């Protein structure tokens, strides 16, 4: 998977990203602040979607949970505001597209 630079205007091609399943699957590689971040997603229960962000050293770099219609995103304070906004935008668009395509 090739890492793609992320901006707030980053558009997601729904067909290019895999659907969220009950088992974690790597869905994207992003460049955030110059480092590669892998995005993993799963849907372990009805109405619950989890997004995990992992850096190149396999350390957790944030997460998000969609429970019903509420999306909670937790990202490192060390990331710039622009990077946090772009990743939040990416996650929001991705989970929304997955819901629409289900």
Structure description:
By secondary structure, the protein is an alpha+beta fold. Helices cover 21% and strands 41% of the residues. It is built from one helix and six strands. Strands 1-2-3-4-5-6 form a six-stranded mixed beta sheet, covered by helices on one side. The chain is globular. The two termini are 24 Å apart. About 7% of the residues have low confidence.
Mean pLDDT: 84
Q: Report the strand count.
A: 6
Poorly predicted ranges? 9-15
Order of strands across the biggest sheet? 1-2-3-4-5-6
Helix-strand pattern: EEEEEEH
Keywords for this entry:
single chain, 102 residues, alpha+beta, 1 helix, 41% strand
Task: Give the helix/strand layout.
Elements: E1 4-5, E2 25-32, E3 35-45, E4 48-55, E5 60-67, E6 70-74, H1 81-101
Parallel strand pairs: 1-2
Antiparallel strand pairs: 2-3, 3-4, 4-5, 5-6
Give a brief rundown of this model.
By secondary structure, this protein is an alpha+beta fold. 21% of the residues lie in helices and 41% in strands. The protein is globular and about 35 Å long.
């Amino acid at each position: 998977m090739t890492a793609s630079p992320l901006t707030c205007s980053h558009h997601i091609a729904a067909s290019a990203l895999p659907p969220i399943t009950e088992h974690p699957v790597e869905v994207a590689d992003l460049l955030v602040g110059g480092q590669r971040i892998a995005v993993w997603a799963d849907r372990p229960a009805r109405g619950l979607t989890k997004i995990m962000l992992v850096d190149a050293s396999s350390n957790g770099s944030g997460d998000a949970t969609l429970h019903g219609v509420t999306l909670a995103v937790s990202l490192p304070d060390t990331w710039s505001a622009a990077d946090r906004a772009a990743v939040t935008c990416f996650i929001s668009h991705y989970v929304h597209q997955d819901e629409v395509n289900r």
